[in-house]
Amino acid sequence: MKREQFCDHWMFGKTGEKMVSVTLPHDATQYEIRQPDAASGSGGAYYPGGSYIYEKAFTAPEDWKEKTVLVEFEGVYPCAQVFLNGKEIGAESYGYNLFRVELTEILYGQENTLRVEADNSRVPNSRWYAGAGIYRPVWLLTGNREHILPDGVRITTLSYEPAQIMVEVETSAARGTKQESTEILTVICDPGGKAVLSEELTMQDGKYTAVLDIPDAQLWDDENPNLYTCEISLCREGVCLDSASTVFGIRKLKWSTEGFLINGKSVLL
Questions:
Q1: Structure confidence by residue, pLDDT tens digits, 37-53
Q2: CA-CA distance, 156 to 220, in Å (whole number)?
Q3: For the chain, does the N or the C end have fewer beta carbons within 10 angstroms?
Q4: Alpha-carbon distance 177 to 13, whole Å?
């Protein structure tokens, strides 16, 4: 999916107060006035809690009608509720979680309003100063209806001698059933950028998977952090619908009475 920054031109305010323009990330706690008897105590820097509102107006292009549109929040502290044009479309109570909401019932070709409410009124709720509001970046993700899920590519080292990895890919259309004419292709590139193998993945347990042997593998260790690249393409009838790329190292870590081992070699911490 296409990933774009979505941090500019937000309006912020406390419930019932005038809103001001802000750029994310943003710490709502800094709009509070410290109080010596604040319930947050010294751990919360004597800031009182509060409830906060963020709003962003944006125009949805007509071509979004055929796409999936997500908004990714890296962190909203805490008790976030997300609304689109007044209708709740998502929530996340835990303030440290990354979460995504799909923008449904968009007004195409018109202005839309995305609203986020964060309730930090119940303090103390942390052992230390946590801030409040949308304190991490926000991203807009757009893609075809059938796409590779965000964070949907997983690489696991099965063996380092010989080098063998498992590639797992989750798509929006997988859900346990292979779609007609859909192909998931992977290309593995070595640390120098050279393609060393390619493979089509097969459906298994709701994911597209492949077990691959890496020839003449350059292993990752504490002195030589070699990184390979896995390029994934989701195709149908020769047309690429989506792509994703991730880097990985081929390594096995082990803890035992022998100590800490990287690829079978003892490493002192």
A1: 999 999 999 999 999 99
A2: 13
A3: C
A4: 46
